[in-house]
Amino acid sequence: MYRRVAVLACVVLGLALMAAGTAGATDETGDAADTELIARGQEVYTVNCVACHQADGRGVAGAFPAVRDNPNVADTAYVEQVIRNGSAAVRDPEANSGNMIAFATLSDEDVAAVIAYLQAGLEVPGGAAPVAPPGEVAGTALPFATVITMTLGFLAFLAVAVLIAGPYVLARNDRHRFDWPRAWLKAAVIFLFFVIATVVVPSVIMQWGPVTRAPRIVQDLIGSGIWVVALGVGLYGLWRGQRERVL
């Protein structure tokens, strides 16, 4: 009775945590993507627009109109048309210059980015764009809180597996009867242990910030130490399993 309640509780907890983690990943990753887009817009603006509209977006009176606090900026379609085709419609009433030149060579992504930057008031949330680590696509890394939540959900499901499969894995073997399902289950547990303990765990630890910043010799010692300890624990478990007639 208590075992069934524990299994049900772990399943419910795991589902709730993983759902919360997924929702958090969607929201926070979406915010990071928006920030990246605005930061890209800042780059496009700096290269193509600063000379006329100035870094603060206030333009030059009588020559180049302001884009900061300009109500026309809120109209995405209109701003896109002006960027692509050029127009005199964005000039201040006092402006007497000719039409704004067209920037037809800008890509769709650059146009969308610079419009997002203008509509954000020429400010990047947080003051700077998030910088992705080498080999990582910006805006796709999961936030730390999301990783923790989803990990807890996974551990809850792992607890269910242990509660259900544990008695079969640890049950002593009957030397007069060969049980194929139990043999396969025990083999799977042994395989998973060695894969996780000697491959996954060392890989995760070696990518941890303090370790990556350590000297190479220290990294090698840490990696080798983790692997040796994991291998030793696994071999000791096999020895005990044979001794207790579990394997």
Structural description of this entry:
It contains 8 helices and no strands. The chain is mainly alpha-helical and 247 residues long. It has 2 domains: 2-127, Cytochrome c-like domain (Cytochrome Bc1 Complex, Chain D, domain 2); 175-243, no CATH class. The longest helix has 47 residues, at 2-48. Residues 89-97 and 128-140 have low confidence and may be disordered.
Q: Quick check: average pLDDT?
A: 74
Instruction: Assess the beta-strand content as a share of residues.
Output: under 5%
CATH structural architecture of the largest domain: Orthogonal Bundle
- Rounded to the nearest angstrom, the radius of gyration is 30 Å
Provide a compact summary of the structure.
By secondary structure, the chain is mainly alpha-helical. Helix content is 64%, strand content 0%. It contains eight helices and no strands.
